Amino acid sequence: MKKAVCILSGGMDSTLASYIAKNEGYEIIAVHFNYGQRTEKRELKAFRDICKDLNIKEKYEIDIPFFVQIGASALTDKNIDVPVDGIETGVPITYVPFRNGIFLSIATAIAEKENANALYIGVVEEDSSGYPDCTDEFIKSINYTINTGTKNTTNIEIKTPLVHLLKSEIVLKAMQLNVPLELTWSCYKEEEEACGVCDSCRLRLNGFEKANSKDKIPYKVK
User: Fold this and answer.
1) Dihedral angle at the C-alpha atoms of 141, 185, 114, 135, nearest 10 degrees?
2) CA angle, 107 as apex, 59 and 141 as ends, to 5°?
3) Is there a contact between 7 and 120 (Cβ–Cβ < 8 Å)?
4) Does the model's pTM come out above 0.90?
5) Which of 108, 137, 184, 218 has the most CB atoms in a 10 Å sphere around its CB?
6) Is there a binding annotation on residue 213?
7) Known binder of ligand: residue 15?
8) Is 10 assigned to a binding site?
9) Is 13 annotated as a binding residue?
10) Is residue 134 a known part of a binding site?
């Protein structure tokens, strides 16, 4: 059976990408990163719940402590407040420096070890928060690089099935595939009830609203 490594944060985008991989006939190897993010424990719970629902046998939980050491992001530095007013311009302070590049590099090593030929990541370009490592251009570039830097017998395709979708389209696609979005977690700030006001919560709630659907996870503010 063909294998795919899925980078699975526990958020709705990476979760949908993983269900798409399963729907396309791949045996999934799930990879999750604990990198000192504010909602690390809640995201890990989401990852484990989703792996159980997908009946994933092979999974990796990778710790990357250095993101906390370098700081520079509101997600990993408790001295930087997570924005809640939705008026940031440019690359937001929640951007974690080159996070997806590092994630993809580690996932590539796992894919090469596991003889997987696909690597799924739930990046979204058009309706994302403006992160430079979520673009189609970046993914194409790093896909070339990883195949240049691996064995001649290794041929990995990075698949980004959501990259050009809007959040509402992601919600609709998830509903179509019976993805349990109530198991996912998107909030940047809170682990018990989603804050409802950070950029990630705003994007998620807006996606559900435009899809004429109700988000089942608990919120402090809606």
Assistant:
1) -10
2) 155
3) yes
4) yes
5) 184
6) no
7) yes
8) yes
9) yes
10) no
Residue ranges and CATH numbers for the domains of the chain are 3-167 (3.40.50.620)
Residue 9 marked as a ligand binder? yes
16 carries a ligand binding annotation: yes
Tell me whether residue 6 is annotated as binding. no
The answer to whether 195 is a known ligand-binding residue is yes
Q: Report CA torsion sign: 193, 46, 181, 83.
A: positive
Q: Any known ligand binding at 201?
A: yes
Residue 137: both structure tokens together:
């251009």
Which residues make Cβ contacts (< 8 Å) with residue 41, sequence separation at least 6?
Answer: 191
Alpha helical stretches, state H, the chain? 12-23, 40-54, 66-70, 99-114, 136-148, 167-176, 199-210
Residue 1 annotated as lining a ligand binding site: no
Tokens 């993805």 belong to residue: 179
- Tokens 């290794």 correspond to 154
pLDDT, one tens digit per residue, over 86-135 is 766 789 999 999 999 999 999 999 999 999 999 999 999 976 678 999 99
Q: Which residues contact 207 (CB under 8 A, 6 or more apart)?
A: 127, 166, 167, 168, 170, 171
| 101 annotated among ligand-binding-site residues | no
